[in-house]
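Each letter names a residue; the fold follows as tokens. Both lines appear below:
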Amino acid sequence: MHKLLSDQIQDLGLGDFYEVLETAIRGKNGSEFSFAGLQSHTINSIKSFEGVDRVWIEEGQAVTKRSWDVLIPTIRKPGSEIWITYNPELESDETHQRFCVNSPPGAVVVEMNYTDNPWFPAELEAERTHAQATMPESEYANIWEGRCKPAVEGAIYYNEVAQAEVEGRIRDVPIDPLLKTHAIWDLGWNDSMSIILVQRSASELRIVDYIEDSHRTLADYAMQLKAMQVNWGSDYLPHDGHAKDFKTGKSAAEILRSLGRLVPNRDEVPEMDIESGIRAARMTFSRMYFDKTRAARLIECLKRYRRSINQKTNEPGAPLHDQFSHGADAFRYMAIVADLLSNSNGPMQPIQYRSKVIA
């Protein structure tokens, strides 16, 4: 933006009137254009902009809630305005939600695409038509039509989430009282505790609710689940749920069982490495239906679950451990136990066949 404005000043013959500095452009009449990266600012440095008339945020899709919460009250000079330009990424991004989905009073929202460019050249039109014919539909819609992506670039489940949206499997999914509701746990304290509530009907997996929180006891979660008064099935914990805590001498499985959770011998997710678990999740994804409201946070985790990128080779590595990985871990466990989920009241018993001899 700094270079663009500097070049325009020269093109307009205003070089003698404006002084171009490294982070600012100053006019002889006292006007000043300042340039800064919002993410590099502290709260105090953002507040130093309180006297400006216009703030222009470029690439606004990356601005966080915290930055907006500090910047917006700072720009309070009479007649001041905030301008934002961005290409949306996810529907849930803070900037998109704050200014487009839930536009504040007085906001002017303009959707502008290549069709609004009267000087759109034939070369770009050829590039666009080629992209339309060869790109995945969701990618073309984001780049050329400004539509939101189904997931972040490089998301592990990008294609699966996109397909689920196209097929309408992210929707209202009511809890069926005739089906068992199973709880799949990813344990955490400082990290998030994640619990997926899922029902199975034939081959369908219906994710009817999702809980994610931290710094809460197992007893607290057990009480929350009990209050839901659904037709409970089994609880499944990963292997670390059976390791005894040195402070209490008990495992999470033992504690939950004492609180009325966990059916014996039905409570452990079979051990599987992460990559095999991801493959299992991909294979199972087409059978899944997500409640768009109660499982919204889980959907967000799947949209943002990515791999680390080697800075030297630019090659993807292991999945990132961040605020989105806990829900994705619970999701992986759910895929692993998908075919173990039952609507019976106890462990399934093998059918005993009697042998008869016809004489």
